[in-house]
Amino acid sequence: MARTWNHNKAERQYEMQLDEQMAKLEYKRKDNKVYLIHTEVPDAFEGQGIGSELVERSLQDIETESLKIVPWCPFVVHYLKEHTQWQRLLADHVTLPS
After folding, report:
1. Checking DSSP bridges between strand 68-71 and strand 33-40, what pairing results, if any?
2. pTM exceeds 0.90 for this model
3. CATH number of the domain where residue 62 is located
4. CA dihedral 76, 67, 33, 25 (to 10 degrees)
């Protein structure tokens, strides 16, 4: 399976092309904050680590741009709890729910 990653700024989403389907992480941006809203992986690719790979690549891109994150998406929150090294990107005064 070919995987192509893309930051689609026009659609405000990070994308991973998976053959004929696409996984995506939608966001909104305000000032230096990226609000991570919704992660979507096609049913045929669930359970294969696609969502985690998409979030990881997105966080790398966000860090490269020196931005901070506000995770609204439950999947991203879960990812950040398991990969605590990325919590350094949390915007000031943002905490992860218990």
Report:
1. parallel
2. yes
3. 3.40.630.30
4. -40
